[in-house]
Design goal:
Blueprint (H helix, E strand, L loop, with lengths): L2 E3 L6 E3 L1 E4 L1 H4 L7 H13 L4 E3 L8 H11 L8 E6 L14 H4 L2 H15 L4 E6 L11 H11 L3 E7 L8 H6 L5 E5 L11 H8 L2 E5 L23 H4 L4 H18 L8 H10 L6 E5 L3 H10 L7 H7 L14
Parallel strand pairs: 3-4, 3-10, 4-5, 5-6, 6-7, 7-8, 8-9, 9-10
Antiparallel strand pairs: 1-2
The structure holds NADP nicotinamide-adenine-dinucleotide phosphate.
The site of NADP nicotinamide-adenine-dinucleotide phosphate has 27 residues, from helix 1, strand 10 and helix 12.
Length: 330
């Protein structure tokens, strides 16, 4: 495993991080014992960064991670990044939402206490606001509340996870020095952050966590166009309409490039997707959803594969897919 610094002053984090959403639920059946095996395997393979959230199974993902932490000596415990969601209301927050109603000071304090209890720790390594709206950029009080909580010793780093329809809303927060870390969607299909978000992260020394590197699994190439996700798997909705068919068609084009580059062996599509997500220098870590020990092992191993060359990246640029969010199938 290779390691990078989380922002200019942050801790050293593994290039491959553990994405803990599916451990909580919403991805069809997930066995807790298998989740713990996946977490342990990842740590054994050098993963020292785990991403989770309050909303992943109403704390189930956090509580499983707490079990892992409790089983390890302090010096071997991975860093855990969790998230506080806004209180009930539209997701992402609408431009009409007031921060007082969604991320009020009392609500944030109470939520941070819940995160500490669920993770069984006295201080959160990194707390991210789970979503944001640029409507709050000029009066970003919730981030100042988190600063006070940091001064009180409740948390370390402060982050914001981007709303997918307006990822660049965090650009001003980075320039205003309000966040240590941002969490961003970036993958072979979604290359837009290269335009501004990642350069500003580099300019401001902000740490960057890349999420959804496999576009919810489809970039692994393992789903057929007519694959049906169970109704209790959120991907039943994510890939609604003809989105899965179109995605699978596009994955086939990526596979052709993989062959053309002569990288078919030993680089798999998963490896290619992870190395692509790791390619921009401002990226600190790539959190991949891992549900089994085998996935943890394969994903962790991708870090040490040779980096993609500028020529390969130039070829892969053609897979950028400007998907609208204007109908259910996206
Ligand atoms: N708003 C936010 O802040 C936000 C939103 C989304 C995600 N996240 C974070 O980002 C993390 C990663 O994103 P994600 O989990 O949504 O999506 P992802 O990493 O793009 O995809 C995860 C899925 O890819 C498949 N997969 C993983 N490793 C594989 C391997 N080696 N071989 C074949 N298939 C493999 C698995 O699918 P199967 O289940 O079919 O096996 C897995 O569930 C999340 O876990 C979460 O921590 C944050």
């Amino acid at each position: 495993m290779r390691y990078r610094t989380l922002g200019s002053h942050g801790p050293s984090v593994s290039e491959i991080g553990f994405g803990g959403w599916a451990l909580g639920g919403e991805w069809g059946a997930q066995d807790d014992a298998e989740s713990i095996r996946a977490l342990r395997t990842a740590v054994d393979c050098g993963v020292n960064f785990i991403d989770t959230a309050a909303g992943y199974g109403d704390g189930r993902s956090e509580r499983l991670i707490a079990q892992l932490l409790a089983s390890l000596p302090p010096s071997e415990r991975p860093l855990v990044a969790t998230k506080t969601p806004p209180s009930a209301g539209p997701w992402p927050p609408s431009p009409h939402c007031r921060w007082e109603d969604r991320y009020g000071a009392a609500y944030l304090r109470d939520n941070v206490e819940q995160r500490l209890r669920n993770l069984g720790v006295e201080r959160l390594d990194l707390l991210q606001l789970h979503t944001w709206t640029r409507a709050w950029n000029d009066d970003p009080q919730p981030l100042l509340v988190l600063r006070r909580l940091r001064e009180e010793g409740k948390l370390g780093l402060i982050g914001v996870s981007t709303p997918e329809q307006d990822q660049n809303c965090v650009v001003q927060l980075m320039r205003d020095g309000l966040v240590d870390v941002v969490q961003v969607i970036f993958n072979l299909f979604h290359q837009e952050p290269l335009a501004q978000l990642l350069p500003v992260a580099a300019e401001t020394g902000t740490g960057v966590i890349i999420r959804v590197p496999l576009d919810e699994g489809v970039l692994s190439g393992k789903y057929a166009a007519d694959h049906r996700f169970p109704e209790d798997d959120f991907r039943h909705r994510y890939f609604a309409g003809d989105r899965l068919r179109r995605a699978v068609h596009r994955v086939a084009a990526i596979e052709e490039d993989l062959q053309r580059l002569g990288l078919g062996e030993p680089l798999s599509l998963v490896d290619l997707a992870l190395k692509f997500a790791l390619a921009p220098p401002p990226v600190s870590t790539v959190v991949v959803g891992m549900r089994t020990a085998a996935q943890a092992q394969q994903n962790a191993a991708a870090s040490e594969l040779p980096n993609l060359t500028p020529e390969m990246l130039a070829l892969l640029a053609r897979h950028n897919w400007l998907r609208g969010v204007w109908y259910a199938g996206k």
